[in-house]
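Translate structure to sequence.
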């Protein structure tokens, strides 16, 4: 069943590539992209689809408060089931339904409810069972944690049926899919949050606040990454990920690195990503995994991919991807400003001009800075977050913020434009790589409103 899905997607991408190649035939260059593309002044530009009549921006969108948020989970494999377990410990929610391809995953989640003394949820089994689930009118939030290719079809169906959506990362795999999410949100006036949990890690939240309070001066260079040795486990888990990586060159998982640094740079809240240039290495260990687990001789994803992004305000973003290297986990997370510097991996460090700027401040000074600048809401739930867990507590903080905002009728911390911008790096990096690292202009998913909002803020 899953193979059919990949074949269908690859066939669709193939036809899109032909259409787009024809569309730009006059340029004499081949730019296969999921939306029409042209080359202008040495840069690849993707066409922005017009906003449908009557459809309005969803920037800062607030919806009616929901007293008890009724949630349905679609995709309760590794990640989805751990979310269900966390949600049994969150106030103000009711778990209504589970949907998966496998009965044992549904049973596991029912077990979590039983252990927590909560009522049984309804089960939906099968690849299109999410439609039946979304057709219900007693669900507020559809929480999606399937493999990547299902994120957008399920998100759009849920939005079209009046539900808010929270979806795992990346929210979308192509620019066309990014636009589908933006349009479905704007049209149906429902929230779509991509569950970028790394924005809620303790160091990142404190460093964001320090940057906002000016401790680092003007932040002009930021780095993020997803460097995580995954390939040994591909006979056991996330096997769809290997299939995807074998067929797709580019940064296939950009959002963990990008999310927290884009918040620092106020992307679509005063600045925007302007263009991207990508480079990669050949596939070494990826190719070995393809041979070992799939008996194939290719992997299109290079072992290491680097994308450089220039913002409208001429700031620099660097994002890296490598899931094949024998090296310790890192999301980089580096901020460089005119008056200071923050670094999370491999060792946490902060330096500021007023405290001997060319060295990190002593550990105890850093600890007190990190505590002092932690947002108040995070301080209030820190202990519980660390007890419930989920990547050291950041998953729980993300859940808490999502439910808090829905219950209070507030705009969400991460909106659909974040989901689109951060996910877009996948296809944009692929396009750049397949065209000799040519720069690719970032689509403006706000359709001109990127400078309307004054900086990133948590709604409280
Ligand atoms: N934010 C994080 O830290 C983090 C960590 C791990 C995974 N993820 C993301 O979570 C998602 C899931 O990853 P995972 O490791 O749990 O994968 P997984 O393969 O363990 O789980 C996916 C589940 O989705 C189900 N599924 C697939 N298609 C479905 C459909 N049409 N309807 C209902 N169920 C369907 C599968 O049966 C499976 O149980 C991915 O998007 C991944 O990138 C995020």
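Result:
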């Amino acid at each position: 069943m899953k193979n059919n899905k990949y074949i269908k997607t690859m066939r669709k991408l193939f036809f899109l590539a032909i259409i787009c190649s024809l569309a730009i035939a006059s340029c004499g260059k081949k730019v296969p992209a999921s939306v029409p593309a042209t080359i202008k002044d040495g840069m690849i530009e993707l066409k922005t689809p017009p906003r449908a009549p009557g459809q309005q921006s969803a920037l800062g969108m607030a919806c009616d408060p929901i007293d008890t948020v009724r949630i349905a989970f679609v995709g309760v494999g590794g990640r989805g089931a751990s979310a269900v377990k966390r949600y049994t410990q969150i106030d103000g929610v009711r778990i209504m339904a589970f949907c998966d391809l496998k009965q044992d995953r549904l049973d596991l989640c029912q077990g979590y409810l039983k252990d927590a003394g909560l009522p049984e949820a309804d089960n939906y089994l099968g690849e299109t069972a999410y439609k039946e689930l979304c057709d219900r009118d007693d669900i507020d939030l559809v929480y999606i944690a399937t493999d990547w290719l299902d994120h957008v079809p399920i998100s759009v169906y849920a939005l079209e049926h009046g539900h808010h959506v929270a979806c795992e990362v990346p929210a979308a795999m192509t620019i066309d899919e990014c636009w589908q999410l933006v349009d479905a949100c704007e049209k149906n006036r429902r929230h779509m949050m991509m569950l970028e949990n790394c924005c809620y890690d303790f160091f990142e939240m404190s460093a964001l606040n320090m940057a906002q309070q000016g401790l680092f001066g003007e932040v002009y260079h930021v780095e993020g990454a997803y460097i995580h040795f995954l390939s040994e486990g591909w006979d056991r888990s996330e096997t769809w990920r290997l299939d995807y990586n074998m067929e797709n060159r580019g940064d296939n998982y950009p959002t963990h690195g990008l999310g927290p640094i884009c918040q620092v740079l106020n992307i679509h809240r005063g600045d925007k990503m302007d263009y991207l240039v990508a480079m990669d290495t050949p596939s070494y260990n990826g190719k070995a995994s393809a041979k070992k687990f799939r008996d194939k001789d290719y992997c299109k994803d290079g072992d290491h991919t680097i994308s450089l992004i220039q913002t409208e305000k001429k700031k620099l973003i660097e994002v890296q991807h490598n899931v094949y290297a024998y090296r310790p986990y890192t999301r980089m997370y580096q901020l460089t400003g005119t008056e200071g510097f923050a670094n999370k991996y491999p060792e946490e460090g902060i330096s500021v001009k007023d405290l001997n700027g060319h060295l990190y401040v002593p550990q105890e000074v850093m600890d007190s800075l990190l505590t002092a600048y932690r947002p108040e809401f995070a301080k209030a739930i820190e202990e519980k977050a660390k007890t419930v867990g989920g990547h050291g507590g950041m998953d729980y903080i993300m859940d808490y913020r999502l439910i808090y905002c829905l219950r209070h009728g507030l705009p969400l911390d991460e909106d659909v434009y974040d989901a689109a911008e951060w996910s877009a790096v996948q296809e944009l990096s692929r396009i750049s790589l397949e065209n000799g690292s040519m720069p690719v202009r970032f689509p403006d998913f706000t359709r001109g409103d990127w400078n309307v909002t004054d900086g990133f803020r948590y709604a409280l």
